[in-house]
Amino acid sequence: MNSNTFRTPGRRVAASAAAAALAIGPVVVATPAHATGAEGRAGAVVLRAGLDVSLLDKSVDVPLKATLNEVHAPESAEKTALSVRVDGVDQDRPVQVLRADVATAKASADRQVAEAHSNLAHATLHVPGLPLLSLIEVEKVTSTAICEAGREPVATSNLLGKVTVLGKKVTLSTGGPTRVEAPGVGEVSLDLSRTQTTSRTAAATALALKVSVNPLTLNVAEVTGTVTLAEATCESPAVPAKAAEEKPATDPGDGVRAQSGEEPAKDNLAETGGSSATWYIAGGAALLLAAGGTAMVLSHVRSRG
Asked: Quick one: the chain helix, strand, coil %, rounded to 5?
């Protein structure tokens, strides 16, 4: 039997081994990286009050803490309550601190953007001891904070329409606090449209009030503290780490990558273009040689048989 009859299968075995080595090579060398970014954070509130109420007959201070429509994210949230009441500071009768036609707070956050919005319209704010005289009345105030990954955060707030403080119509200025005094009642200081941003955060407050009133009625001697209307805050999501750009290991011109004299050798390889992929190439070559040798031995044995 002609020995050439068995050489063709041997060559086929060698060719199959070579194809297998080439198929395995890219899978081992190429390892895609997956980067993830943390979610952002956002919060909004229509009203936040922190007041101390001094009572005449007890000579004690009663804290008045109240919030209306306070929401936080990363999970989307929305609240639309229109009023808030507190008890125990006005001869144990409830006090309606805030009443509004519109009072909404929204917050949402994911891995791309965090944002918050608060909106208050046709609102009236009261404090204990002043049942008939409102502390402040506003037509409309809004605040927005948007923090997008990789971009500069944005904070905005707006006051639309007239504002009445302790029964007086006032014109507010963005240049500093506006003080309003009412004889026999007290004083209110207002900051309009306060915004602040950093590289990853934003905060907006439509109105911030510093209150100091002495009603001397209904067993209330003094009310002091702060009130915030229409607040929105956010923090940007973390920017995902970008996958490193792949650079060709060889020059298409002559198959050898050039290196400058200042570039250090990587992984203790020769400076003639070697890289970490050299070991896979060498392994593939060894596999090809082994497969070819096996095929030749089989061919030689079968030809003798």
From this structure: 20, 45, 35
